[in-house]
């Protein structure tokens, strides 16, 4: 099947435009995340940062269904098997709707219980997590059905609208502080679900097929474990901060986390566009060698773009914190280091062929190694820098990610058969 030449190629003229809209969205989200610091105290922000650890924990229940659909949907389209592509799409959508409803109810009940126990701040955070989780469970399904550059353009416009709304809702936080911060997240989550359902590029139906579900789960669990370990790895700095500090110190980590999240999410969005395209081309006959080379070129391109952004933002940060958010000035050096930690996310593109060619064993080895490497290096550096633990943790994160990427590059280029096929 894979000996023939591909009959169709991606349309590169439109792909960069949609990728830039994705970068604009995540850059805007990072700016808004830092902007709200003017009205939120570090201890209050620490509560939300701790709540995000709960969100990271419950994503384990996704079971890789959407991960598998993201690969199988464009692959079936590449084989011109429209009924199969629609079936996997609808089963993944049905499961995601059911899961989001159950988790949303669980968080709302937890919020009510905590409120009765007398903790008003945590009660609000858990209530916000309900809508936040629903949005972040459903939206990836919409994005995963994107195949061609025409759909990319549509999603690009949605992302631009979403970003503008993020800026437009900042006055809610300025007016009401932490209460406004919580309300803003709820409002944005609801609006984003509505926008994606209106223009998300697909017609979804609620239907169930146990055979399709079991296939998606079996195929997706290895990918899900890899992605979940990656999400766990992004939580490692917060966990280490809580071990060595308190909620106030975790709140000071928030602007650093915004920068790290921008790098990871921006690369993830670009990857989400490129991944179905390469999977589609693999279904049309593109060789494994060409898939690997394309991934390397993508990695280099996004690295250069993010390096330029980091060099522009670096000298602006001191002025921003002094004039705008002096309560977070202790986060300055960690934020500047975080700019360059985020560049490592671009290098992770070289792992994408492992997913497309279902090299699950090597992918799992790489993913399993990441959390313990990051945790041990971050904790060790923080232990030996008690006077500047936040800075030490971010330095440890940079060192740990470089070490993990070196090991992963070895797995891809010297051990993976796809690199030599």
Automatic annotation (TrEMBL):
Its main location: membrane. InterPro entries: Poly_Biosynth_Transport. It is a multi-pass membrane protein. It is found in: Cell membrane. It comes from the Bacteria. Keywords: Cell membrane, Membrane, Transmembrane, Transmembrane helix. GO terms for cellular component: plasma membrane. The keyword Transmembrane helix applies. The keyword Nucleus does not apply. Pfam families: Polysacc_synt_3. The chain crosses the membrane at residues 52-71, 91-118, 154-174, 181-199, 239-262, 295-317, 337-356, 363-384, 390-413. PANTHER family: O-ANTIGEN TRANSPORTER-RELATED, PST FAMILY PREDICTED COLANIC ACID TRANSPORTER. This is O-antigen/teichoic acid export membrane protein. It comes from Rhodocyclus tenuis (Rhodospirillum tenue). The lineage of its organism: Bacteria, Pseudomonadati, Pseudomonadota, Betaproteobacteria, Rhodocyclales.
């Amino acid at each position: 099947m894979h000996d023939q030449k591909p009959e169709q190629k991606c349309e590169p003229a439109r792909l960069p435009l949609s990728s830039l809209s994705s970068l604009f969205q995540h850059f805007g989200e990072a700016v808004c995340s830092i902007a709200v610091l003017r009205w939120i105290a570090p201890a209050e922000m620490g509560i939300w940062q701790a709540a995000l650890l709960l969100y990271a924990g419950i994503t384990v229940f996704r079971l890789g269904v959407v991960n598998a659909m993201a690969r199988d949907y464009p692959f079936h389209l590449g084989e011109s098997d429209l009924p199969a592509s629609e079936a996997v799409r609808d089963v993944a959508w049905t499961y995601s709707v059911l899961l989001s409803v159950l988790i949303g109810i669980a968080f709302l009940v937890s919020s009510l219980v905590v409120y009765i126990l007398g903790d008003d701040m945590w009660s609000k955070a858990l209530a916000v997590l309900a809508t936040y989780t629903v949005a972040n469970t459903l939206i990836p399904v919409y994005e995963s059905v994107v195949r061609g550059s025409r759909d990319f353009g549509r999603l690009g416009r949605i992302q631009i609208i979403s970003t503008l709304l993020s800026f437009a809702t900042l006055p809610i936080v300025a007016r009401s502080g932490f209460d406004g911060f919580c309300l803003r997240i709820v409002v944005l989550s609801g609006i984003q679900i509505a926008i994606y359902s209106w223009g998300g590029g697909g017609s979804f139906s609620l239907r169930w097929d146990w055979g399709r579900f079991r296939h998606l789960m079996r195929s997706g669990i290895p990918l899900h474990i890899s992605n979940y370990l990656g999400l766990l790895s992004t939580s490692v700095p917060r966990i280490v901060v809580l071990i060595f500090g308190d909620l106030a110190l975790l709140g000071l980590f928030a602007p650093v986390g915004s920068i790290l999240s921008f790098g990871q999410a921006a690369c993830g969005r670009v990857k989400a566009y490129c991944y179905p395209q390469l999977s589609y081309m693999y279904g049309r006959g593109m060789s494994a060698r060409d898939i690997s080379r394309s991934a390397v070129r993508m990695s280099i391109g996004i690295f250069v773009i993010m390096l330029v952004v980091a060099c522009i933002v670096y000298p602006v940060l001191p002025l921003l914190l002094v004039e705008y958010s002096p309560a977070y000035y202790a986060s300055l050096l960690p934020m500047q280091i975080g700019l360059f930690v985020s560049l490592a996310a671009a290098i992770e593109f070289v792992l994408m062929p492992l997913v497309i060619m279902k090299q699950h064993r090597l992918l799992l080895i790489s993913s399993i190694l990441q959390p313990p490497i990051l945790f041990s290096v971050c904790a060790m550096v923080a232990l030996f820098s008690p006077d500047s633990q936040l800075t030490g943790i971010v330095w440890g994160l940079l060192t740990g990610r470089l070490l993990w990427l070196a090991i992963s590059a070895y797995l891809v280029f010297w051990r993976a058969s796809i690199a030599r096929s």
